[in-house]
Write a sequence for this structure.
């Protein structure tokens, strides 16, 4: 009898597990601090534990999970300090990117950014908040890509997974998806006017707003909740 099914390669199963766990973390289905048990993940995905173990090892390299000796593997819980460092580094990178971009701007590049923003708007109108985050990151990545600075883009890309963790929190703290999306408008406007100083400020203000919203809407609630538990 000729073979009906192709044999799944170990690397294919590892990639499958890697992508599925990664998506679950990015979309908030696996929560920060949640323990990841190999046997449970293997059973849920109907595969052996080995590709799960390999996937977790690669996810740890990306900073999405971390292993505690003799305790297990957990979804990384980023702190308020992590956020401050991440956003300040991101601001420095993106301000440089937008400065280089404006020095070499043309209508095609402006149209590319407007296209991403239009996609973000469409996602917000349809209530597709997870897709909206993807488009948000694509907007900022596009600024870095259009700068033509390869090393800058490489550094920005290393931050992307952690950025998504914070954006998952941030998107739910705005009154409406539309309010979230329109915070990008000043950036586009400054780039279109070819005003470098204004564009750098727009990037900086945009990211500082995000930090402030997360700090007030999330971290302060976490701290207050811990205090209440300690007092009871």
């Amino acid at each position: 009898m000729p073979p009906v099914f192709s044999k799944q390669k170990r690397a294919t199963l590892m990639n499958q597990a890697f992508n599925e766990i990664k998506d679950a973390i990015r979309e908030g289905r696996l929560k920060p601090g949640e323990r990841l048990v190999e046997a449970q993940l293997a059973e849920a995905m109907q595969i052996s534990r080995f590709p799960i173990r390999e996937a977790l090892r690669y996810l740890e390299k990306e900073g999405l999970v971390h292993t505690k000796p003799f305790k297990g593997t957990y979804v990384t819980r980023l702190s308020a300090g992590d956020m401050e460092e991440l956003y300040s580094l991101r601001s420095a990178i993106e301000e440089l990117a937008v400065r280089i971009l404006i020095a070499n701007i043309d209508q095609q590049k402006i149209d590319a950014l407007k296209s991403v923003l239009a996609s973000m708007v469409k996602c917000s109108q349809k209530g597709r908040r997870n897709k909206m985050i993807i488009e948000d990151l694509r907007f900022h990545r596009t600024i870095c890509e259009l700068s033509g600075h390869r090393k800058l883009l490489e550094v920005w890309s290393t931050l992307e997974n952690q950025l998504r963790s914070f954006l998952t929190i941030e998107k739910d703290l705005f009154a409406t998806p539309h309010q979230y999306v329109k915070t990008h408008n000043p950036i586009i406007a400054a780039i279109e006017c070819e005003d470098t100083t204004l564009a750098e400020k727009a990037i900086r203000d945009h990211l500082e707003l995000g930090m402030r919203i997360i700090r007030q809407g999330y971290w302060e609630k976490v701290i207050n909740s811990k205090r209440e538990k300690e007092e009871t």
Q: What stands out?
A: The CA atoms of residues 92 and 204 lie 8 Å apart. Residues 4-8 have pLDDT under 50 and may be disordered.
